[in-house]
Amino acid sequence: MAEKVLFHIGLHKTATSSLQKDFFTVGHGFFQGLKKSKIMEVFVNKSSTELISSKDLECFLEFVKRANEDSLVPLVSHERLSGYPLSGGYDRMSILNRIKSTGLDVKIIYIIREQKSWIYSAWKQMIIDSSGMKLQEFLMKSHPKHNARLPVPRLEYLNYARDITLLRDMFGEANVSVIPMELMAQDFSYFKSKVSKLLDVDIERFRNAQLSFKNESLSLSEIYFKLFINRYVIRTELSPRGMISSSNNFFKFLAGERFCTSFSYLAGSNSFSALDANNKALINGVVGEYFSEINFKASEMIGIDLKKLGYC
Fold first, then answer.
1. How many of the other CB atoms lie within 10 Å of CB of 308?
2. 52, 54, 153, 253: which has the highest count of C-beta atoms within 10 A?
3. Distance CA 15, CA 13 (A)
4. Residue 85 to residues 135, 266, 295: CA-CA distances in angstroms?
5. Backbone angles phi, psi at 5, to 5 degrees
6. Closest to 77 in 3D by CA, of 121, 14, 122
């Protein structure tokens, strides 16, 4: 019988860091392949569509063996496993095929979030991660002018009905648990019961687990200051238009969180409330009813009325 392994594959901006720190711990019976470990590199390879090599598979099986020896569930948890959103998840299938090719008893946790809220939060995270992409560009208004062949963000990335079908077809319906982040935040016991059922373990092992959300975003004034620095001053892989290389220490300081926070105090948060409303209106205008039918289908598939959770 194949050994059991759990993959928590995102999405981005769905409390992944909180789950890693508060729930997916040794105390709750998990052995993590952490974000910075070589385990992640086995599955996320931006330069290849190939299946994992025999050497990488051997490395991963050793990780699984070590977890089993300690009576722990081997776990790989990372939002990047759902593909890179800034590029429309172009490498998602390659990653899932690598996971499938391990030949193990794979269990999947896939956490979703209302799409308009996700888009706004994900765009802010891209700015924090040094992107110089404006919200309009993130909403697929245009390809990057420096290279029109590069993949770009796309609404299809958030087609949950399609993703649920794909995951169930690849790994089996009983091996895939799809959980709305909003429901997890309202009732964490629901999340714990879903994981317990997925792994066929006693829910008592999670009895004391609580979730405290991590990684609070910068204020909107900080986001826009950092956007300006990223877009026009500092040159990085995510923002190639900048004038100065990101290796310059002074401009590293300018883009740092401490300096952005100082600017935020000077600018005043109230002056950005109208901009926040305009951004949300822009997202609403672009997205429209795009996800309406998709979310209706997803609701039927997972047995949860997503509309009651704020999904359009």
1. 10
2. 153
3. 6
4. 14, 32, 19
5. -145, 140
6. 14
Cβ neighbors of 155 (< 8 A, separation 6 or more) are 115, 140, 287, 290, 291
With b meaning 16 or more CB within 10 Å and e meaning fewer, what string describes 250-280? ebeebbeeebbeebbeebeeeebeeeeeebe
Amino acid at 125: Q
pTM listed for this prediction:
0.87
The residue count for the chain: 312
Of the segments 44-58, 74-88, 93-107, 235-249, which one has the largest average pLDDT value? 93-107
Residue 17: φ, ψ to 5°:
-60, -40
Compute the C-alpha angle 126/128/132, nearest 5°: 60
Provide mean pLDDT across the span 228-239. 74
Beta-bridge partners for 76: 7, 33
Q: Nearest to residue 293, comparing CAs of 140, 162, 141?
A: 162
Spacing of C-alpha 151 from chain mean position: 18
pLDDT, tens digit, 9 for 90 and up, residues 81-127: 999 887 788 899 999 999 999 999 999 999 999 999 999 999 998 88
Q: Which two tokens stand for residue 32?
A: 């993590």
Q: Reduced to 3 states, what is the DSSP secondary structure of residue 136?
A: helix
SS3 306: helix
Name the strands in the sheet holding 73-77, side by side, starting at the edge strand that comes first in the sequence.
30-33, 73-77, 4-8, 105-112, 176-180
User: Which candidate, 2, 13, 26, 5, places its Cα nearest to that of 108?
Assistant: 5
CA distances from 92 to 16, 98, 99, 196, 233 (A): 17, 10, 11, 26, 32
Query: What is the Cα–Cα distance from 43 to 200, expressed in whole angstroms?
Result: 25
Q: Which residues pair with 112 in a beta bridge?
A: 180
How many helices and strands in the chain, by DSSP H and E?
14, 7
- Calculate the alpha carbon distances from 242 to 10, 139, 152, 162 in Å: 31, 21, 19, 37
